[in-house]
Each structure stands twice: as structure tokens, then as C-alpha cells.
Design brief:
By secondary structure, this protein is an alpha+beta fold. The chain has a single domain (4-125), classed as Aminopeptidase, CATH 3.40.630.30. The protein has six helices and eight strands; from the N terminus they run ββααααβββαβαββ. It has helices spanning 19-26, 32-35, 43-51, 57-60, 106-120, 136-144, and strands at residues 4-5, 9-13, 63-69, 74-84, 89-96, 126-132, 148-159, 162-172. Strands 1-2-3-4-5-6-8-7 form an eight-stranded mixed β-sheet. A hairpin with a 4-residue loop joins strand 4 (74-84) and strand 5 (89-96). Keywords: Acyltransferase, Transferase.
Length: 174
């Protein structure tokens, strides 16, 4: 896959050099609730994951890309998961790692690049995402790019002993 180039950011494939970046994200307990992670990952496990990240989306049903600044500094990750080519849909998730880089338009640009890629290169009909009811920033991001709330899953995720509701949002390409 070639790098997807935007005005301020790019999306590129994972590289072996991303080991520490991915390791830090996957082991940041503060964001486990968004990824349904319940235990830390070893560097060895992340290294194996990176070694296999070149596999085709049609085989592994997912694709993870690194959001980079124009300087190639890693800012975050954006994922396509649950890829279903027969029904032409997939889930999408996004994370900008540093709080200092959030709400600067990087997420919007990354999501728009990914949406264009999904429509043009993967011929998808729709994307969906799951967002915690209290994650106002993510809800705003997805709605801004045309995702619509289509459902509310009540008491869906248990986070620190409390059940939280989760919205299901969907974007259908015209």
C-alpha cells in the first residue's frame, strides 16, 4: 500500500520501527476502554504483530495504518476492522496518541483519507464505528464526517466497575 497523502497528515503502513509507538498505545491503560483491552501486550507480541501487518486485508479482515505528520512523526493509528467484502462494510477506529495533538484536525483528515480509500480502493458500501456515550469528541468527529447514530447499546461495556452505553454510528457511501 502506498502512503495516503493529505494536506497536513499522511496514512502509512506499519513498519518495524513503530514497535515502541504501538507498544505504548496498546499498553496505555487510559485508553483500554476504547479498544476493549484487558491486559498488557509484550514487546514480543507487538513485534510479531508488526511482522504480520503486511498481510492482505482480504485475508486478515483488518488494516491498521499510522497517522503521521508531514515530518513522518507518528501521531496515532486508524484501523479498519471486521472487514466484510461480501457485504461491503467494515468497522473503523481511530486514536490520536498525544492529548496535545487532539482537536487539531488530524483525526478529521485521517478519517476522511481512510473513508476515501475505503470507497475508492476497497469498494465499500458502508463503514461503522462504536463510540462510548460519554466520548463527546469522537462522537463529534464521526458526525462531522457524515456518520449517523443508528443505535444505542445499553450497558454495553463494563469500565472500572460501571456499565456504559455505546452508540453505533454508520456511514453509507452514496
Amino acid at each position: 500500500m502506498v502512503t495516503l497523502k493529505g494536506k497536513h497528515i499522511n496514512l502509512r503502513a506499519l513498519e518495524p520501527e513503530d514497535l515502541e509507538f504501538v507498544y505504548e498505545i496498546e499498553n496505555d491503560e487510559a485508553i483500554w476502554e476504547f479498544s476493549n483491552t484487558i491486559a498488557p501486550f509484550s514487546r514480543y507480541t507487538i513485534k510479531q504483530y508488526l511482522e504480520n501487518s503486511h498481510k492482505d486485508i482480504f485475508e486478515v479482515k483488518q488494516l491498521r495504518l499510522v497517522i503521521t505528520a508531514q515530518t513522518n512523526d507518528a501521531l496515532g493509528l486508524i484501523d479498519i476492522f471486521d472487514f466484510d467484502f461480501i457485504n461491503r462494510r467494515a468497522g473503523v477506529g481511530i486514536l490520536v496518541k498525544s492529548i496535545n495533538n487532539r482537536q487539531k484536525g488530524y483525526g478529521s483528515e485521517a478519517l476522511q483519507l481512510l473513508m476515501d480509500y475505503c470507497k475508492t480502493h476497497l469498494s465499500l458500501h458502508q463503514l461503522y464505528c462504536n463510540v462510548s456515550e460519554d466520548n463527546e469528541i469522537s462522537l463529534k468527529l464521526f458526525k462531522k464526517l457524515g456518520f449517523e447514530v443508528v443505535g444505542l447499546k445499553k450497558d454495553w461495556n463494563k469500565v472500572k466497575g460501571t456499565f456504559k452505553n455505546e452508540y453505533l454510528l454508520q456511514h453509507i457511501f452514496n
